[in-house]
Write a structure and sequence with these properties.
Elements (H helix, E strand, L loop, with lengths): L8 E8 L5 H20 L3 E8 L11 E10 L2 H9 L2 H4 L9 E5 L8
Antiparallel strand pairs: 1-3, 1-4, 2-3
Length: 112
């Protein structure tokens, strides 16, 4: 029996940072993480994290190059709206003009 609601689809989001956004990213990161919590709880964001220039040595601050998210939504417009509402987008961290929102289909997924 169908609920009538459109099916959710997966979208892989590749979100590059603007050059020189490292300090701003670190400044607003706590707000970003708080803002993502309800999206994770709702099952809208099922994976995500920072993309790095390289893995840092122990004790070093990573050199960030952007973010990756795996979102569940009805369509790309819904995903874009979620991303545009994030503090990383409106504080100048993410370069959404160069973001990729790619239709995706998980083959395997393992919980951390």
């Amino acid at each position: 029996m169908s609920s009538g609601a459109p099916a959710k689809k997966e979208f892989l989001c590749i979100l590059p940072d603007f050059p020189g956004a490292q300090a701003k990213r670190l400044e607003v990161r706590p707000s970003h993480l708080e803002g993502v919590k309800p999206l994770v709880a709702a099952g809208t964001i099922v994976a995500g994290g920072a993309m790095l220039e390289s893995h840092p040595a122990e004790g070093e601050i990573p050199a960030f190059k952007g973010s990756m998210m795996l979102a569940l939504a009805e369509n790309e417009a819904e995903v874009r709206a979620i991303l545009e509402n994030d503090i990383y987008a409106h504080s100048g961290v993410w370069d959404l003009a160069n973001a990729q929102i790619i239709p995706f289909k998980s083959a395997v997924r393992k919980e951390l």
